[in-house]
Amino acid sequence: MHPTDPVPHPDPAAAHHSARLGDLIRAGIAAAGGLLPFDRFMDLALYAPGLGYYVAGAAKFGAGGDFVTAPQLSPLFGGCIAVQAAQALERLGGGDVLEFGAGDGALAVAVLTGLERLGALPGRYLILEPSPDLQERQRALLAARVPHLAGRCAWLTGLPSALRGVVLANEVLDAMPVHRFSIGAGGEPLELCVGERDGALIEVEAPVRSPGLTAAITALQHAGLAQTPGYTSEINLRLHPWCAALGDCLDAGLVLLIDYGYPASAYYQPDRTMGTLMCHWRHQAHADPYRHLGLQDIGAHVDFSAVAQAALAAELTVAGFATQAQFLIGCGIDRLMTDAADGGAADLNLAQAVKQLLLPAAMGERFKVLALSRGLSGPWCGFSMRDLRDRL
């Protein structure tokens, strides 16, 4: 559906759920003295226990949810991830796979199936999933699709103390809460906060109050970005602690981060004056994060330059950067497609799904793959077609 189409109204039960989350957020605004930094609002909207979008139990993925991810389009996506993971596990002499936020479990199923076909099964397939509801859905899908491999899977509530293997994060970073900012009339940084007026949530420009935000905005301005009065965008200040925690647990291995986003020079280009924040509900996109609280996804594009900087600070190596299309082609999606074809009517659906994964107007260029590593060296098949690290 077109992003400007009217968004349908929730049913009474969903509206009641949304109202409860609204009360929690308004209480948070009051406790913060009347203004809540946007990243705290986004954190509550997505992750408030029992109420946030990702932990409340509503269908989110696929045709019956709010959006479709690459693993749901085709198992060939996970098959390509498996090819890259197998290369890393071979160089390590074995290891585990850790997936952040495994959604409905489709990627886990496809990766395990692909690794089995390649004779490269991990010792364990670990899933770090904060949502109890999604954990149950993942368990059910794995038990139904790959029952003989389900015993290798274990669910975590936090990072392991040590890991040797492959880390996967598909559409995880875009769901991290972000700070929003604008540039004042005199070029000064301002923070966009959330307030309340007559019970409604409103956006308020205020002097910067979040630690580290002024320095981050100033760094962008020193690089010639985000300088025009009225310019509005986002900054993810959680990347550094996230990468630091990942670096603390990773003894050796390869990290694959797949998400929609840009290098900083494109993220903060002058004509992107309103940032990248976008909401999704029932396959419709719109830009109002204060609508349908707890019922809709809220996300921002990923600044891959900032991810790379945070990774380097965590003593991880930036091992590769490519568009999703370049990565999948490097991992042999054409070969996997040929192997999967059976000459039947399903081949048309297979071809259509692959087009969605590869075409520039679909996911092929909008999504990127960033590889990080420790204790391993390339080259990596996923970046054999093109490596864009020089653009970070």
From TrEMBL:
One of its GO terms (biological process) is methylation. Coiled coil: none annotated. Keywords: Methyltransferase, Transferase. It comes from the Bacteria. Gene3D superfamilies: 3.40.50.12710. GO terms for molecular function: protein-arginine omega-N symmetric methyltransferase activity. PANTHER family: PROTEIN ARGININE METHYLTRANSFERASE NDUFAF7, MITOCHONDRIAL. This is SAM-dependent methyltransferase. It comes from Candidatus Thiodictyon syntrophicum.
